[in-house]
Every structure is written in structure tokens, then in C-alpha cells.
């Protein structure tokens, strides 16, 4: 039933009820469970049985009454219901006042005929009711005293007037309040009533007035007077006939100015019609206006466009809600300023706008250009991205809300795809929507009937093709539709929240399988299960997983948990907290789809995951395959540096497998090795293979390094060894002699040596190290061999053509047997630092004083850089100074002097001032130096103290 018909029906029901107390028509249309409310009983009535008594009590409260004025209009509508609002002015005979009521009739329109599912009756508050108080209409109240005892309150003005109708329609009396309503002062003279009526058919007004007077000697009229400036003033006139004079009636009337009430009503209507924030149509009004425009312009083809702001929530979070509101208002202003007709536009909700326009003159592109230009002008150093979805209106008979749904479906196609900003609806989307609703209708029943099951996709060690574990992937075996792929139903279940129930079911099924394998004595490989983004919002997650492994008595490490990296962006703090709790319980955490989100490095910094998973597919949408390969190589290298196992999934070809092996990947997953398979097929694969630890167990930091791999031409290490871009050398170190055993390609490239010539020399590698740096290198090697730890140092080393390179050296010990060691060194060229070092040294040497930079580290004082005059003051040349000390000041000063100097450095740092010492310093060679030292100290980013010392001959003091 159309809303116009419901308006007529509601008017009939209300007039029968308030006019005669008839309730049969209302009761016949009630639909269980019907709900009723009235301000007079202040509680809800539920059910048809209570409704009859409810309506009788309501009528008894107002009876006897008469309807003075009434208005009906559609208040709200959707696909299932329509609400009709009635506004009534009732004259209550018992109290001699007027009351203002609004009544809501809520209809269910899904049935063939409308049914009432709710009635809400409310009396307007006192400030509105006072508009109508003291309006006397009975014969007993013919006269009102001069001056008008019905004084106006703060909000409402009313006045008293006595005048005639018939003849000259003279005004015989009026009070000052009546004159003030029309803007006249007490000195002004008003003579004839008809001169005050605003441009309307006076005869119609008088005819209605006479009709009412003839009936019961009273009347009630609503019309407009005109004020002193000629503007209309809406009034209600309520009066009675005092007497008859020949052919004229002498009327005693009260005139009330209902302008304030109209303003309140207009504001109320505005809030019903317009969006409060932007001032453009709200959703319901947009639907109505669009329906009218499309119906009135049958010869025009229309398009429906939905507009959405990408990641609008982020704008509110970063800049504040007011800036977000400003952006919404700017969009509304853009739509207002567009010269396209006919055009309807509105705000549906949040950041979603919708407009209907003629599909001609390239209007679609015009709107996109205008709105994108506005978005580009956002003045907060943030790129605002708008998404558009368009439905070309091909079926004009469907509801406007359905048209908007189609445009919104098209918009969803482009959300998150920045290279594509506008999507267009096609019928496949509609079919997909039908399928989605079918999935939603069937999901709970499917879970109860155990229609969901999981397949296992094995994970392999790349070099041996042996299984190290598997991932559980859900499947839906529908009794009518057969196998349904997860990409069809998982996004739907994530959106409606059902995914958590499904995930809990799959997790428990996996635990049952692990328990069975343990009971059967099978070799156990971990199974990883997926944790949805929606799951992370549940307070039950951690507790449920804890109870699950206890219930089936399985080690937590066997149930590995895969978190999607994109979930970190949505909820980083919760991800960190949940990960820590689960790891403390023993669970292994895998970060799935690493690199495909927006926050990879932040995630890696904050979340202490156990394993990374990288999908090859995120690199396939580029024509620069070499660049993709380098990115993947860098990711693998970074994971190794962080001592994180990494699994590459999505491996589908032999070429991909070979490339992954060449860059040092160890574990893979993908169709090239195995598709997801039923549990029984997986068990057969396991039975054919020997046990291999999982990826999490094979963390690089726990793997013993086999020296044979460095010299085995068939070892998988060789591919990685020669692909590393920094220089790598394997050395034999014994009795102070360092000899190269093997190096990678980058090593020979850095030092400009040919492999053949370099190995032929078999020289001591120390001979190629800059003389002043040899001691530092030897000390680092010694520390590595003694403490079995990685050490780092900066050295300078000559190339084959005599150039001097600055290198950052990382040293580790592979084999240690008595005085014989095999050393692994990684060399990174930092020549730009050498240039800086040389420039600083020139500056230092030109300072006309002894100056030096020293570092206090682990109670050792090191000379990092000193000037030429510093060497002169100590009596040693630079070469001799470095040979004597190796940079460590304990090799220059005696213990007492060194301790005094360290204390002065600490004192200078703690008090943030210059500390001056004038002392006789004795060197290790018993040479005495009487000097004055000015010391300043700051903390470095390595938490050591950097000391700046100015030294001069103390004998001049």
C-alpha cells in the first residue's frame, strides 16, 4: 500500500477514535506483537488483549473532546514499515483548554494489506500547550474584561477583540495585546477587521464562520492576518456570538499568534527532511524526492551515484571530528553548487553521499572531477581519496533504496583500490548479493549440521621437499550447492560477525585431529589455523584457545596461529597485547600476508611474531619482475637478520621455486607442491616422509652452523653465499695470522682482486689492513674467539690498486680448536664515512692545540680521533701512538692516572660542565707529562660517554 493511502486510512481511524471513541477499526488491523504507548499511562502495552483497554483508557482521559486542527504526513519509511505521524489540536471540554498531541501509527507493509504494529501517543510539553490555554468557547464566557485577562506567556502572544460581521465589519474593542501581535502601538487606531486579513478570500472565511456559529453559537478558525508592514501573521481565532444586531453578529474573540508554534513545527519538519550536519536531504527525503523526479521525467535516463571517503575514520582520528565534519560539509557544498538539472542529492549516513542526475552531457565525470578537486584542496597535508559507485537506472519501478544499494555495491568494488576510483554496477553483483543472502540464511544451520570441514595444505622445506607442517583451510560442503570456496563466504561472515563462531568450530576440529594423532603415536607436525580480524575483537579469544588445548591435552606449539598483517592496521594495540598473552601460553604466532598491508615495518617492530609468511601474489601485479625479485630478496634477508623463519606461500611454478632457493628461502607452501587436501590424503603423505621440525622450531638462531657447508659445492648454502651483496670472507686465524679460505663474489668486487690471483698469494690478510687499524681488528677477533659472540669494528683496508676503503666489519667464530679458529667476516663498505673522517682529521690537525675525542665504554677509555698537536704533546708520533696503545688509553697511562681521568669524565657528564685537571701524568713507558686537561662529556646513542678533551702543557699555568 502506498503512503498516500496510509495517510487517508490513519486520518479515518483517528477521527473515529477522538470524534466518537470508536476503536473497532484500529483493533481489526493490529498485528502481534503490537506495542502501544501513551504519555497518560507512562508504560508500554504489548499484545492485542491489552490494546482494547489501553485505547478505552486513552479516550476516557480526553473525552469529551473535539478536534480543532489536524495534520498527517509520512514520518519514516523503509522496505518493511511506514510510520504515519498525526499532529492534533484537541479542545478538551472539561478543562476549557486546547491540547497539542502527536500520534505515531507504525504499519507493517510486508503483508498484502497493512497491519498496525505500534501506536505511540504523546502530549506536547507545557511550553507548547500554553499556546492554547485560556481559550474560552462556551456561552457562559461571552465577555472578557478590558485589558484581556488571558495574558500571554513568555512564548505566546494573544489578544482580545470584539467586532461585527455583516455590514461594515467594525472593530468595537481590542486590547493592546491584539495590536502588538500586528505591530501596532496603543496610539494607533484599528477600525475594520477585514482590512487586517492577509490577501485571502475573506468571503470563504466569513462563510465558514457563519456556518459554525449557526451550529452552536461558537467558532474556531485558522487563517492569516497582516501586520503593520504587510507581512502575514498566522493566527487561530476562537470566539462566540455575543448578540445579533439586525443582519450583523457581534463577536467576542480571542486571537492567538501561532507563529512560534509554526516555527517549532518548521524546525521539526526540517529535522525530518534534512541532514542536520550538512543541511542537504537526509536518506528518507532523498528517497522521496528522487522517486518524484524520476516519475516526473520519464524521457530522461538517470544514474545513481554513491560517494564515499576512503578511510574516513583515520581522518577523524588524526585531525579530530570537527575537521572530519568540515570535510563532509564541503562535499555537501560542492553538490549544492553544481548546475545540473534535474538533480537530487543527500547524505545517507556517516561519510556516504548519494546523488541522482541525468545520464547525459558527461555528468558522471563532471561530478567526479568537482568532488576530486575539492578533496585535493584538503588543507591538512593529507591526501583525501574519494570512491564512486554508479548504477545506471535501468529499472525505474524498483525502490530508490534498491537503486542506492546497487550503486553502493559498485562502490564496494573499488574500496581500497587506489588505482580505480569508480565502479559501475552490473547484474553479476546482484546475483552475488543474492548468493550472499543465501549464505547468511544457511550459515547457522550449516554449523549445526557440521557442513563445514577443513583441508590441509602442507608446508615444505625447499631444499628437501619434506613436510614441516600444514595450514588448515575451511571448506563448506553444502547439501545442495556442493563445495563452496572460502573466498565466497569468508568475507561475508567477517562482515556479519559469524566468522568467530566458524573459527572456533574449526579450531576445535583441528585440536581433535592433533589429539588423535598423538593417541595413534604418529609423528606430529604442527597445524596452523587462521585468526580473523573479527576474532581479535572478542574478549573470549585468549580464554577459548587456552581452554581448547587443555581440553584436548595437546602442546600449544602444535596449534600454530596465523594472524593477518592487515589486522594490525585496524587494531595495533590489541594485536600486541593478544600476541604476548598467546606466546606466554606457548602458542607459535605466524604473521600471514606480510608485506601486503600498509604497516609492515610498524607491525614487525611492535609485534614479536615467531614466523613470517609472505604471499608471492603481492608481487605479481607489476611489470618490473626484477624489482619484485629484489624486494622479495630484501624481505628474506631482513627476516634472516631478525632471526625470523620465513615461509613463502603461493608458489605455483618451478621457476618460482628455483628463484626462492637461490635467494636463501628455506620453507614454502603452494600449489606447485600441494593443493589443500583432505586429512586422509595428508596423512598418507606424512606416512611416506621422515620427520622434519617445523619452521618455528628451525629458527636460524638455533641452527648449528656446519663448516662443511662452506666448502660443499652441492650445499644449499652456496646459492645464498654468492647472492649476498656485502663482502663475505671465511678465514683461518692462528698465531696472529689471518688467511683467507673462501670469499663470495662481492668480496672480490669490493677489493678489485681476481679470484685466481688472490688465492695464489696466500698472504696474511692483515698486511692489507691499514697499519693503525690492525690492532683494533685483532682485538675484535680475539674477543669473538674468547666470548663466542659477534663483534663489530671499523677498519681501513687497501684494494689491489692501492685505494683505501673504510669498512664496517662483523666478525663471528665458526670453529674453535685450541689456538686454531675459523672466522666468518662480513664487510660493508662505508667510504663516505672515511671521507668524513679524513675531513675531520684535517680540521683537527689545523687546531693550534692538542685536541682529541675519546670514548668511555665498559670502563675502557678509547682514543677515537686526536689532533697532530696531541701527538706532539705526548711525545709520540701518530704511528707510534697507535702502535703503543691501539687506541686504548690503558696502554698509555698508568692505572692511577687513568682512574683519575675516568672520574673526571663522569664528573663532567653528571654536572654538565667543563672539568679541568692539572696533573703530572705518567705513561706506561715511565715518561712524565705535566699537562692541563679540559674535559666535556656527552652520552652517545650507544649509551657510552663521548669525551672532548683540550690538552695543553701544564708548566705554563
TrEMBL record:
TM spans (from-to): none
Biological source species: Pectinatus haikarae
Domain PAS intervals: 162-216
Pfam families noted in UniProt: EAL, GGDEF, PAS_9
Matching CDD domains: EAL, PAS
Protein name (database record): Diguanylate cyclase (GGDEF)-like protein/PAS domain S-box-containing protein
EAL domain ranges (all copies): 436-690
Lineage: Bacteria, Bacillati, Bacillota, Negativicutes, Selenomonadales
InterPro entries from the UniProt entry: Cyclic-di-GMP_PDE-like, EAL_dom, EAL_sf, GGDEF_dom, Nucleotide_cyclase, PAS, PAS-like_dom_sf, Rev_trsase/Diguanyl_cyclase
Amino acid at each position: 500500500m502506498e503512503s498516500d493511502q496510509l495517510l487517508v486510512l490513519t486520518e479515518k481511524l483517528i477521527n473515529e477514535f477522538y470524534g466518537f471513541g470508536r476503536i473497532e477499526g484500529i483493533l481489526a488491523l493490529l498485528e502481534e506483537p503490537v506495542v502501544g504507548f501513551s504519555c497518560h499511562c507512562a508504560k508500554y502495552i504489548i499484545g492485542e488483549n491489552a490494546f482494547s483497554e489501553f485505547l478505552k483508557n486513552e479516550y476516557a482521559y480526553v473525552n469529551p473532546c473535539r478536534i480543532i486542527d489536524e495534520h498527517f504526513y509520512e514520518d519514516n519509511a523503509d522496505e518493511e514499515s511506514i510510520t504515519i505521524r498525526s499532529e492534533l489540536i484537541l479542545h478538551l471540554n472539561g478543562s476549557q483548554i486546547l491540547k497539542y498531541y502527536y500520534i505515531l501509527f507504525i504499519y507493517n507493509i510486508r503483508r498484502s494489506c497493512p497491519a498496525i504494529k505500534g501506536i505511540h501517543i504523546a502530549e506536547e510539553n507545557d511550553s507548547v500547550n500554553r499556546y492554547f490555554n485560556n481559550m474560552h468557547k462556551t456561552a457562559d464566557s461571552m465577555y472578557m474584561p478590558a485589558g484581556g485577562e488571558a495574558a500571554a506567556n513568555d512564548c505566546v502572544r494573544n489578544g482580545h477583540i470584539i467586532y461585527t460581521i455583516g455590514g461594515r465589519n467594525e472593530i468595537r474593542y481590542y486590547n493592546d495585546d491584539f495590536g502588538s501581535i500586528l505591530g501596532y502601538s496603543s496610539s494607533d487606531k484599528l477600525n475594520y477587521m477585514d482590512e487586517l486579513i492577509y490577501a485571502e478570500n475573506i468571503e470563504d472565511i466569513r462563510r465558514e464562520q457563519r456556518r459554525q456559529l449557526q451550529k452552536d453559537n461558537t467558532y474556531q478558525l485558522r487563517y492569516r492576518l497582516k501586520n503593520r508592514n504587510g507581512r502575514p501573521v498566522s493566527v487561530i481565532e476562537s470566539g462566540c456570538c455575543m448578540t445579533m444586531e439586525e443582519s450583523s453578529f457581534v463577536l467576542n474573540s480571542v486571537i492567538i499568534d501561532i507563529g512560534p508554534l509554526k516555527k517549532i513545527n518548521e524546525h521539526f519538519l526540517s529535522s525530518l527532511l534534512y541532514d542536520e550536519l550538512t543541511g542537504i536531504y537526509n536518506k528518507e527525503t532523498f528517497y522521496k524526492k528522487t522517486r518524484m523526479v524520476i516519475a516526473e521525467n520519464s524521457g530522461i535516463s538517470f544514474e545513481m551515484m554513491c560517494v564515499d571517503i576512503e578511510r574516513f575514520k583515520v581522518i577523524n582520528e588524526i585531525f579530530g571530528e570537527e575537521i572530519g565534519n568540515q570535510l563532509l560539509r564541503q562535499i555537501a557544498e560542492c553538490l549544492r553548487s553544481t548546475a545540473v538539472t534535474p538533480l537530487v542529492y543527500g547524505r545517507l549516513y556517516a561519510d556516504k553521499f548519494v546523488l541522482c542526475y541525468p545520464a547525459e552531457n558527461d555528468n558522471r565525470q563532471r561530478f567526479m572531477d568537482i568532488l576530486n578537486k575539492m578533496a585535493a584542496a584538503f588543507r591538512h597535508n593529507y591526501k583525501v581519496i574519494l570512491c564512486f559507485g554508479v548504477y545506471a537506472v535501468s529499472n525505474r519501478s524498483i525502490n530508490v533504496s534498491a537503486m542506492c544499494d546497487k550503486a553502493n555495491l559498485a562502490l564496494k568494488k573499488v574500496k581500497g583500490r587506489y588505482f580505480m576510483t569508480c565502479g559501475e554496477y552490473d547484474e553479476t553483483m546482484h546475483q552475488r548479493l543474492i548468493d550472499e543472502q543465501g549464505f547468511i540464511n544457511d550459515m547457522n544451520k550449516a554449523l549445526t549440521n557440521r557442513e563445514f570441514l577443513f583441508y590441509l595444505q602442507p608446508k615444505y622445506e625447499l631444499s628437501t621437499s619434506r613436510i614441516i607442517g600444514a595450514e588448515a583451510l575451511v571448506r563448506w560442503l553444502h547439501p545442495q550447492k556442493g563445495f563452496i570456496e572460502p573466498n565466497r563466504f569468508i568475507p561475508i561472515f567477517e562482515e556479519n560477525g559469524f566468522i568467530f563462531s566458524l573459527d572456533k568450530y574449526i579450531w576445535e576440529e583441528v585440536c581433535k585431529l592433533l589429539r588423535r594423532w598423538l593417541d595413534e603415536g604418529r609423528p606430529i607436525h604442527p597445524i596452523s589455523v587462521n585468526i580473523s580480524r573479527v576474532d581479535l575483537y572478542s574478549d573470549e579469544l585468549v580464554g577459548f584457545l587456552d581452554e581448547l588445548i587443555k581440553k584436548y591435552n595437546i602442546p600449544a606449539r602444535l596449534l600454530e596461529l596465523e594472524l593477518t598483517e592487515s589486522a594490525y592496521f585496524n587494531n595495533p594495540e590489541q594485536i600486541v597485547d593478544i600476541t604476548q598473552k598467546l606466546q606466554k601460553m606457548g602458542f607459535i604466532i605466524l604473521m600471514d600476508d606480510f608485506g601486503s598491508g600498509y604497516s609492515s615495518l610498524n607491525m614487525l617492530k611492535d609485534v614479536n611474531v615467531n614466523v613470517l609468511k609472505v604471499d608471492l601474489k603481492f608481487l605479481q601485479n607489476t611489470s618490473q619482475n626484477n624489482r619484485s625479485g629484489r624486494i622479495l630478496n630484501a624481505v628474506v634477508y631482513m627476516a634472516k637478520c631478525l632471526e625470523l623463519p620465513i615461509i613463502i606461500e603461493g608458489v605455483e611454478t618451478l621457476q618460482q621455486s628455483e628463484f626462492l632457493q637461490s635467494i636463501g628461502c628455506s620453507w614454502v607452501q603452494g600449489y606447485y607442491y600441494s593443493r589443500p587436501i583432505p586429512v586422509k590424503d595428508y596423512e598418507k603423505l606424512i606416512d611416506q616422509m621422515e620427520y622434519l621440525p617445523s619452521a618455528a622450531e628451525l629458527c636460524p638462531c638455533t641452527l648449528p652452523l656446519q663448516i662443511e657447508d662452506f666448502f660443499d659445492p652441492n650445499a644449499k648454502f652456496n646459492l645464498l653465499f654468492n647472492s649476498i651483496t656485502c663482502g663475505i670472507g671465511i678465514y683461518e686465524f692462528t698465531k696472529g695470522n689471518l688467511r683467507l679460505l673462501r670469499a663470495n663474489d662481492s668480496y672480490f668486487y669490493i677489493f678489485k682482486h681476481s679470484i685466481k690471483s688472490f688465492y695464489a698469494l696466500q698472504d696474511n690478510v692483515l698486511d692489507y689492513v691499514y697499519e693503525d687499524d690492525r690492532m683494533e681488528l685483532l682485538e675484535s677477533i680475539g674477543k669473538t674467539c674468547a666470548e663466542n659472540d659477534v663483534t663489530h669494528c671499523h677498519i681501513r683496508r687497501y684494494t689491489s690498486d692501492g685505494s683505501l676503503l673504510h669498512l664496517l666489519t662483523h666478525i663471528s667464530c665458526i670453529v674453535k680448536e685450541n689456538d686454531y679458529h675459523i672466522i666468518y667476516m662480513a664487510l660493508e663498505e662505508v667510504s663516505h664515512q672515511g671521507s668524513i673522517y679524513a675531513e675531520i682529521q684535517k680540521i683537527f690537525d689545523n687546531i693550534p692545540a692538542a685536541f682529541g675525542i675519546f670514548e668511555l665504554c665498559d670502563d675502557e677509555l678509547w682514543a677515537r680521533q686526536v689532533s697532530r698537536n696531541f701527538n706532539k704533546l705526548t711525545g709520540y708520533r701518530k704511528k707510534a701512538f697507535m702502535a703503543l696503545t691501539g687506541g686504548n688509553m690503558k696502554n698509555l697511562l698508568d692505572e692511577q692516572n687513568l682512574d683519575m681521568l675516568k672520574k673526571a669524565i663522569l664528573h663532567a657528564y653528571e654536572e654538565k660542565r667543563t672539568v679541568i685537571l692539572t696533573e703530572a701524568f705518567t705513561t706506561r713507558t715511565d715518561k712524565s707529562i705535566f699537562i692541563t686537561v679540559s674535559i666535556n662529556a656527552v652520552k652517545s646513542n650507544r649509551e657510552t660517554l663521548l669525551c672532548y678533551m683540550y690538552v695543553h702543557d701544564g708548566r705554563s699555568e
